[in-house]
């Protein structure tokens, strides 16, 4: 059996299993709960709350913002770039196993970071271990939840990723309190123990084959084995890169994620630079979580209503976020920062802060990246619409000429 045949048969087997899966009910919502808790831990702590650890690492080692930014940059780079690998591993070995391994790697990264004697060690401990663990825990779970849902898929995905917003709201004050009482190393140890709960979340991810009748399982057992053998030699389907829609949104997300995660790193030191206290900086990060949660819940529900093209909703949100991020340097008061956050501030590097001495240029670059990412799908949709109108005009023109020709022939 070659790879293409194995891939097709594996797809047919999954399609067969989906026939028996209860969609939008029952265990679907347990999987959503698992994804919610996992996002609360993985994204809410390891990604969105890293800005608090960022300040502590800079103060402890006296390192530059640029060098320290590489810790989370490496982690997020690995988490995003290895997503196809994580998805493939989940298809071969099962979502539950892959997510469980991710739940072991992330706390391992936190524990190793306790023994860091230099900033560079964090590149290995936090950047490598947490980055790989994040992609193993995040990507497969999101895919499985999508397979468990149908008509309520947007709502299910919205509830799942809302966990990151709740974590973003709940954990910054807790982490700030732990840093004051236990220091950086003690905080990392406690967070490592907390992250082990990802393994519990993995146990809730019931495989699709659970619902397949026993007689069907017996018939599919031999096929599944041969399919997995073929998938072990699986190669990426490069034909995806020839799809305009895929490339448009891939390019859009590339620019968006060049700016989005950096807000959570830049905001705490930015608040410190403009004279706000540490407590106010921590609370500003928590406020992001509140409005982020409202936005995710609303757009998940709104998208299921099909009142507006989802691409338009996505692009509009990114454009607003990009503009809000770019005007952040103009906001030097506590209230102004909250207004910016309310405008769905979703935002590049400490390197710019080291050069300029402020975070102004960093916010502008991050906002510009998000803005460009939001405009790309809009430009593509305008092009598709204009091409359709041109084709419609040409077709009408051709029909008109044919009708005129027939009339002339009739007169003759």
Automatic annotation (TrEMBL):
Its chief place of residence is membrane
Name the Gene3D superfamilies for this protein. Answer: MFS general substrate transporter like domains (1.20.1250.20)
What are the record's GO terms for cellular component?
membrane
Q: What is this protein called?
A: Major facilitator superfamily (MFS) profile domain-containing protein
Matching entries from Pfam families are given as: MFS_1
**Transmembrane stretches, start-end:** 27-47, 67-86, 98-117, 123-148, 155-175, 187-208, 246-269, 281-302, 314-339, 359-382
A single GO molecular function, which one? monocarboxylic acid transmembrane transporter activity
Q: Does the keyword Membrane apply?
A: yes
Subcellular location as annotated = Membrane
In the bilayer, the protein is annotated as: Multi-pass membrane protein
Task: List residues of the Major facilitator superfamily (MFS) profile domain.
Answer: 28-412
CDD domains linked: MFS_MCT_SLC16
Which UniProt key words apply to this protein?
Membrane, Transmembrane, Transmembrane helix
């Amino acid at each position: 059996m070659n790879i293409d045949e194995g891939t097709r048969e594996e797809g047919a087997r999954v399609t067969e299993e989906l026939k028996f899966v209860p969609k939008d009910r029952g265990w679907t919502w347990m999987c959503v709960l698992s994804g919610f808790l996992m996002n609360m831990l993985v994204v809410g702590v390891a990604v969105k709350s890293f800005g608090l650890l960022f300040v502590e690492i800079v103060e402890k080692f006296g390192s530059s913002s640029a060098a320290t930014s590489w810790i989370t940059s490496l982690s997020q780079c690995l988490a995003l770039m290895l997503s196809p690998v994580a998805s493939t591993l989940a298809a071969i070995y099962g979502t539950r196993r892959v997510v469980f391994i991710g739940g072991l790697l992330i706390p391992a990264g936190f524990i190793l970071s306790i023994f860091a004697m230099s900033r560079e060690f964090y590149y290995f401990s936090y950047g490598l271990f947490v980055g790989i663990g994040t992609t193993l825990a995040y990507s497969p779970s999101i895919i499985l939840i999508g397979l468990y849902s149908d008509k309520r898929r947007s709502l299910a995905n919205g509830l799942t990723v809302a966990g990151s917003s709740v974590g973003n709201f709940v954990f910054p004050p807790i982490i700030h309190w732990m840093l004051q009482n236990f220091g950086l190393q003690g905080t990392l140890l406690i967070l490592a123990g907390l992250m082990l709960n990802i393994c519990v979340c993995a146990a809730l991810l019931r495989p699709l084959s659970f619902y397949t009748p026993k007689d069907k399982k017996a018939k599919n057992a031999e096929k599944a084995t041969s399919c997995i053998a073929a998938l072990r030699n699986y190669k990426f389907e490069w034909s995806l890169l020839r799809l305009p829609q895929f490339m448009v949104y891939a390019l859009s997300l590339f620019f968006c994620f060049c700016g989005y995660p950096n807000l959570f790193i830049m905001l705490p030191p930015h608040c410190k630079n403009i004279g706000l206290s540490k407590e106010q900086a921590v609370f500003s990060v928590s406020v992001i979580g509140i409005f982020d949660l409202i936005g995710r819940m609303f757009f998940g529900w709104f998208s299921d209503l099909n009142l507006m093209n989802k691409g338009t909703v996505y692009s509009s949100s990114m454009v607003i976020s990009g503009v809000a991020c770019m005007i952040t340097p103009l906001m030097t008061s506590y209230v102004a920062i909250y207004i910016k956050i309310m405008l769905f501030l979703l935002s590049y590097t400490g390197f710019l802060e080291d050069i300029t001495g402020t975070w102004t240029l960093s916010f502008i670059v991050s906002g510009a990246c998000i803005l460009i990412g939001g405009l790309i799908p809009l430009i593509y949709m305008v092009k598709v619409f204009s091409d359709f109108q041109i084709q419609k005009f040409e077709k009408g023109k051709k029909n008109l000429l044919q009708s005129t020709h027939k009339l002339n022939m009739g007169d003759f």
